[in-house]
Amino acid sequence: MNKGYFGDFGGQFVPEILMPPLKELEKGMEKFLDAPSFKQELNAILKDYVGRPTPLYFCPNLSSELGFNLWLKREDLTHSGAHKINNTVGQALLTKFMGKTKLIAETGAGQHGVATATAAAMLGLECLVFMGATDVERQALNVKRMELLGAKVVAVESGTKTLKDAINAALRYWIAHQKDTHYCIGSVVGPHPFPLLVRELQAVIGREARDQILAKTGRLPNKVIACVGGGSNAMGIFYPFVKDKEVELIGVEAGGSGKENDYHSATLTKGSPGVLHGTRSKLLQTPAGQILPSHSIAPGLDYPGVGPEHAHLQAQGRAIYKVVYDAEALEAFYTLSKTEGIIPALESSHALAFALTLKHKLDPKSNVIVNLSGRGDKDLDIVFGTWSKE
Ligand SMILES: *Cc1c(COP(=O)(O)O)cnc(C)c1O
């Protein structure tokens, strides 16, 4: 395999000036990720701070309704309530081992910003979060959270004042401050080595789930289902199963409202190959190559690109990708809350909604794992309509 590539996807499509910090990061990963001192400290953090291993929960009520065995990997039970913390504590620790003192991050809805600020506070790093000025206004509570955690939030006033402008501002800052600063990217996206780094840090989800299902059922699961925004929770749970050919891997993308003129976030199902944010993957673009804005009811799925390794798994036929619309995700949100007493994140509700479509279609002995990437408390404003949709 070409270094930094997953088949035809991945790579480093960046200006020359970004190569030194990327090379330095690659070196840091080679030196520390497998070093006993790093692994020991990371494992201790994952156990006592993040709350790992997270349970693999068998849904008794929903399983009998569906006619197969439904299991949930409970990333919603991690500290701060979603899988994003696995990545940010790992990158924050690597930053310390590399002798740097500052973390920067980009954030749209604010979830990755909060997860980065959390990890930075715990590990004693300075933290700067870039956020489009429009998002700063819309996500006032998450801005307060980040500030409470000791981070500084920078409102980006350029362009559309949203996520993509925040990414550009963070990159510019990184170029100017690479000596003491690490750019903590939030998903399996961006130039090499980020897709690899974030996948390695999230693969703990799949390693645990694989051990847990083997211990509980004595065999591998029939299907593993996860929602896909940038693709990190899905890559994290898929990766340890990739070699197990009998396990079907299903990524679920957000289809938005499903109306003809509405933009959606279903990058793998509706997009085409192209370069975005330093990597070759699939993205939502016009025939002329203009990036289309994405939309989903789930803030964490609102990204016009997707990690290159997913594009590769799809091209190989090793994983399949499905689309779920806002209304179906909402229905799954209500269903899990009522049947199992678990309020899922709207992102995770997309994965769950696909599992619900399998009702009475599988062998009753089938085991299906859904990655419950986060908890839904953060989404109540959206669900109950006080959120102004722009
Ligand atoms: C951010 C987020 C996602 C989407 O990000 P991925 O990188 O695709 O995992 C999914 N679920 C939750 C709860 C999130 O916060």
Brief digest:
The chain is of the alpha/beta class and 390 residues long. The protein folds into two domains: 157 residues, Rossmann fold (3-Layer(aba) Sandwich), CATH 3.40.50; 213 residues, Rossmann fold (3-Layer(aba) Sandwich), CATH 3.40.50.1100.
Top keywords for this entry?
390 residues; binds pyridoxal-5'-phosphate; Rossmann fold; six-stranded mixed sheet; alpha/beta; 2 domains; 16 helices; four-stranded parallel sheet
Principal-axis shape:
globular
The percentage helix is 40-55%
CATH topology type of the largest domain: Rossmann fold
Structural class: alpha/beta
The CATH top-level class label of the largest domain? Alpha Beta
- Main β-sheet, spatial strand arrangement: 3-4-14-9-10-13
The number of domains is 2
User: What's the SSE pattern?
Assistant: EEHHEHEHEHEHHEHEHHEHEHEEHEHHEH
